[in-house]
User: Which sequence fits this backbone?
């Protein structure tokens, strides 16, 4: 174990290397550029490949190609760059190609607030490409969580053969904290399923419709005959756009392979919720302000707890439902106009009030803003 003072973006690089990423393609953009810079330096040191592409469309395309060729691949950008990647995101989903996409979020729309944090791309990650498809997205609130969730994102992409987002933000990406880096040999890593040696009937998309069986993925050039295509395809990868039964099976299977593994994909931190009467749902850098608000409220004898959602997609509805049964209100602070607030309300179904706290000016939500909302609810009920 090695203790280092790292930026969040630097921790992402360290984790990616340790988890086996050996291909990175990207394009500079604030506030994610340090990830590309770090990968440019470290990739040659571990026998990997770094390419600065001409744009973000090319970046994710190169990552998909490298992944099909057998490499663990990652790219990183911010909102405007992610927008350019979204068509190829759909290609990665339907071709079942593992790739990790890091979005160091900043204020938008368009070029927006390039150097300030935001949490506005939550729905973009889930719905940005077209069609009916699943997505997995993690959101760290610290440098340590950035390291751990980068490893988790890479493992998830490999396990499920799917693209995975890491949704960090400008605050987490640029803050520096001391963390203990584990020895890479101590990490539990997952590699994509491979076909059995000598397999006669290799089908790269032959998985169970319930999503529990993930089909094997051969490396391009290993001698297996298969086709990579963006159309609805059969289990060998060949287009089957006139076969509605195949289309139905494929789309359901792609979605079900995330649903079938939802428990192992979901990462949350439950803080002081055992006796809580008011709960905060927070994610990313806003979690840090929420933690402070919890402590200040407790000092005032108000029983408040925090659900730190490190997995945003699939949404951790089991935990929201669990605590809705015991609390009298949810508070949802986020640096957008209510993207996770709506998800919490869907699960709560009117059983308790849900209060949003929103900020879109490029500044952090402050602990006092959350505390004011807590005290207002406490006074209302007493």
Assistant:
């Amino acid at each position: 174990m090695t203790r280092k003072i790292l930026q969040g973006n630097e921790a992402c690089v360290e984790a990616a290397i340790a988890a086996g990423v050996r291909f990175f393609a990207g394009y500079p953009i604030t506030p994610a550029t340090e990830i590309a810079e770090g990968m440019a330096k470290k990739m040659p040191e571990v026998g990997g490949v770094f390419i600065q592409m001409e744009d973000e469309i090319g970046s994710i395309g190169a990552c998909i190609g490298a992944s099909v060729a057998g490499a663990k691949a990652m790219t990183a950008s911010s909102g405007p760059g992610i927008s350019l990647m979204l068509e190829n995101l759909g290609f990665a989903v339907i071709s079942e190609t593992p790739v990790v996409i890091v979005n160091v979020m900043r204020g938008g729309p368009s070029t927006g607030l390039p150097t300030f944090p935001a949490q506005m791309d939550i729905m973009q990650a889930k719905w940005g490409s077209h069609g009916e498809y699943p997505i997995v997205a993690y959101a760290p609130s610290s440098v340590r969580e950035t390291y751990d969730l980068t490893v988790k994102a890479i493992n998830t992409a490999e396990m499920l053969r799917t693209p995975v987002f890491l949704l960090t933000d400008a605050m987490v990406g640029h803050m520096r904290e001391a963390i203990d880096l584990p020895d890479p040999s101590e990490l539990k890593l997952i590699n994509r399923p491979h076909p059995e040696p000598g397999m006669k009937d290799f089908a790269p998309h032959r998985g169970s419709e319930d999503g529990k069986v993930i089909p094997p993925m051969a490396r391009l050039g290993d001698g297996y005959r298969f086709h990579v295509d963006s159309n609805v395809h059969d289990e060998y990868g060949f287009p089957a756009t006139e076969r509605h039964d195949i289309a139905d099976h494929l789309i359901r299977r792609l979605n079900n392979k995330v649903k079938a593994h939802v428990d192992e994909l979901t990462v949350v931190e439950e803080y002081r919720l055992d006796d809580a009467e008011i709960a905060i749902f927070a994610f990313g850098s806003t979690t840090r302000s929420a933690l402070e608000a919890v402590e200040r409220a407790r000092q005032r004898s108000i029983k408040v707890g925090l659900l730190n959602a490190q997995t945003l997609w699939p949404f951790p509805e089991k935990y929201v439902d669990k605590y809705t049964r015991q609390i009298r209100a949810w508070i949802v602070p986020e640096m957008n106009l209510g993207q996770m607030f709506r998800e919490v309300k869907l699960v709560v179904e009117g059983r308790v009030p849900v209060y949003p706290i929103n900020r879109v000016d490029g500044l952090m939500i402050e602990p006092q803003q959350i505390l004011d909302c807590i005290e207002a609810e406490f006074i209302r009920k007493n």
Summary: The chain has a mean pLDDT of 96. The two ends are 50 Å apart (CA to CA). Residues 76 and 102 are 4 Å apart (CA to CA). The chain is about 40% helix and 20% strand.
